[in-house]
Design goal:
about 45% strand; about 5% helix; 2 domains
Length: about 270
């Protein structure tokens, strides 16, 4: 039997999370969107194969707020198990649905085990397992079947490591000082098959304080280019900045993860 479309399976999965949460109300998910005061839920997006035989398990999230960016620090309220509590998940949550925000790499012999991302916020607990179940395999990272499209490739220098898909590459740490902008640069190469501009969007991903970007989005040509912004940090600490390169005009293809790549910059900020 042919598996249900990914979008349908994902919608069903998210709804089940909301309904089964210990203190969640089934009514709250159907209510008009509120700008603040709502919870955030982790989402298992699927998995894909890596060239070295390992697998990447992709996660995103649903921040039910229309405007509020939530903060949930790594610890008892935000952890992944088994393994280290911090496996690259965000601590800063932008409003609304965010697809394929990061990935957890598991070994070639992972089998039928699961990794679980747990979030506790606003009095609710959500524990979402990610696995290698066949119905959840993502093939779009290697090439989306209907459009023969691959996500953009990102690197932080002409000789640096390259990444494609939710996991991308991670560099750093860069050094910065509170209140002083630090420049961030990334190179993008795309196949141009969608003929759409490549949009780069910069996000605060982890860190103890607010981050202000000089430019939130860079629009590049359909074959890529160089994206630049500045980031200014409100307080000292260890941060991670995420940059997403998307070669689709819309994010409605989010369930297929055909169209974008994340990459990450660690920044150490001193007083």
């Amino acid at each position: 039997m042919r598996p249900a479309p990914t979008s349908l399976r994902l919608a069903t999965f998210v709804l089940a999370i909301v309904l089964l949460a210990p203190t969640a109300s089934s009514q709250s998910s159907l209510a008009p969107q509120s700008p603040s005061g709502q919870s955030v839920t982790p989402v298992f997006e699927g998995w894909y194969r890596n060239a070295d035989g390992t697998y990447s398990i992709s996660f995103g999230y649903l921040n039910r707020n229309g405007a509020e960016q939530m903060q949930v620090p790594i610890g008892d309220g935000n952890f992944i198990a088994p393994g280290l509590p911090n496996q690259g998940q965000p601590t800063a949550f932008a409003p609304r649905r965010q697809w394929g925000v990061f990935a957890v790499v598991v070994p070639a012999d992972f089998g039928n085990k699961s990794v679980v991302w747990t979030l506790k916020d606003r009095g609710q607990t959500f524990a979402i397992p990610g696995s290698l179940k066949p119905d959840w395999e993502i093939d779009a990272v290697q090439g989306e079947a209907s459009a023969d499209n691959t996500p953009p490739m990102l690197r932080f220098s002409s000789t640096g490591a390259e990444g494609r898909g939710p996991l991308g590459v991670t560099v750093g740490p860069l050094r910065a000082t509170v209140g002083k902008p630090v420049e961030l640069t990334v190179e993008v190469v795309d196949d141009g098959k969608t003929k759409a501009p490549v949009d780069l969007t910069w996000f605060a991903h982890q860190g103890p304080g607010d981050v202000v970007f000089g430019t939130v989005t860079n629009r590049l040509t359909p074959t890529g280019g160089t994206g630049r912004t500045t980031a200014t940090f409100a307080q000292a600490g260890e941060y991670v900045i995420r940059v997403r390169a998307n070669d689709s005009n819309v994010m409605t293809a989010g369930h297929a993860q055909c169209c974008w790549t994340n990459s990450f910059v660690k920044v150490a900020v001193t007083p």
